[in-house]
Structures are given as C-alpha cells and as structure tokens.
Specification:
The chain contains 10 helices and 5 strands; from the N terminus they run βββαββααααααααα. The chain has about 200 residues and is an alpha+beta fold. The protein folds into 3 domains: about 60 residues, Nucleic acid-binding proteins (OB fold (Dihydrolipoamide Acetyltransferase, E2P)); about 70 residues, Orthogonal Bundle (DNA polymerase, domain 1); about 50 residues, Helicase, Ruva Protein, domain 3 (Orthogonal Bundle), CATH 1.10.8.
Length: about 200
C-alpha cells in the first residue's frame, strides 16, 4: 500500500496529477484544495497518499496536508460516502470548517457541497460528530504540508490517530517525546517516546 509519494509533477489538472517517481508516473486524484497548492510542472512535489483498492482497480488519492487526508478517511467511513464524494467534500470545505460544521450540525453548509443531500448530511453529522469532537482547533503543525523530509511529527501524529488515540492525546504525547529527542528525531524514536508517554 502506498502512503506517500515524492517526485516531480508531470501533469496537473483540477481532478488528478501525475507524479514522476524515479521514472514511474503515478496517477493521483486530488481535491481542489491540494490542486491549488501544487507547484509548477517539473517541480518537486510531496503528497500524502491513500490507496483505495477495489476488485477491478487501484486508485490513489493525494493530499498536501495530513488533516485533509484524515478527514477524507473519516468521510469514506460514513455509510453512503464513497471516495469520489469524500474528495468533493474535502474540495469544498477545509478540514477545520468541516469539523465545525459537523459539531454544530450545520446541515445547510454540508448540503452546499455538490452531491451531498439531506440524507448524506445527516449521516455525516450522526456518524462523525463524536469522532471530530474537540478536533476543531488542531494545532498548525500536524496540518502543515510535509515539506521537510526530516519532519516526522505529522506521520507520527497520523500513526497514533490510526491506532485509536484521540488527537489531543497524540499531540501532547508527541510534543513530550520531541522535547527529549532534540531536532529532527526519527519517526521510530518519536513514536516510541509518545507511546511511553501514553501508557
């Protein structure tokens, strides 16, 4: 499973990009928010990747920030929301804006996204409200694009979320671990330190 791509941007459209990684072109579908943040053709680009496997195809979805990818994954877990619709929702509302809409049960804002009707908006609020509660004020660090190869905080943060830790717990533990490890710790050391702090 591909989780991250770094290479040269060869094709750039509002729907997809092609990233050249050592001579292999990866076709990656992206939200508009990511498209607007991409460099010019031929320049280096880094994307957080979700690999979606179906019986008849493998699709790659790319995001400039961990926050966008995390929200996309939450949305695809909602009954009736597939990857295409989730990509559209992430294109239309920022991760923070979407969390706020879910917590406030702002169905009107959700229904403004093409493809989201009342039934889907209700499901998104019902199924995700508890999951995003308290995440509306994420710190800037985990949401920033991964522009530094040595910046392991976003990957470690995502890994802890995938293990089921709450975002506030994960961030606090990672910051404690980072204090004792100095600058640019490896993701392994950062996760080990954070897990010790979480026990």
């Amino acid at each position: 499973m591909i989780g991250f791509l770094e290479g040269k941007l060869r094709v750039k459209t509002p729907d997809y990009v092609i990233v050249d990684v050592n001579g292999v072109g990866y076709h990656v579908q992206v939200p508009l928010s990511t498209f607007c943040d991409l460099p010019d053709l031929g320049h280096p680009v880094m994307l957080n990747i979700h690999t979606h496997v179906r019986e008849d195809a493998i699709h790659l979805f790319g995001f400039r920030t961990v926050a966008e990818k995390d929200m996309f994954l939450l949305l695809t877990g909602v009954n009736g929301v597939g990857p295409k619709l989730a990509l559209g929702i992430v294109s239309g509302i920022s991760p923070d804006g979407l969390k706020e809409a879910i917590v406030r049960q702002d169905l009107v804002r959700l229904k403004n996204v093409p493809g989201v009707g009342k039934k889907i908006a209700d499901r998104i609020v019902l199924e995700l409200r508890d999951k995003v509660q308290g995440k509306g004020r994420e710190k800037a660090g985990p949401q920033q694009p991964l522009t530094e190869p040595g910046d392991t905080f976003p990957d470690a943060f995502s890994a802890l979320l995938n293990l089921g830790y709450r975002s506030t717990e994960a961030e606090k533990a990672l910051k404690l671990a980072q204090q004792g490890l100095g600058e640019n710790p490896s993701i392994e050391d950062l996760l080990r330190g954070a897990l010790r702090a979480l026990v």
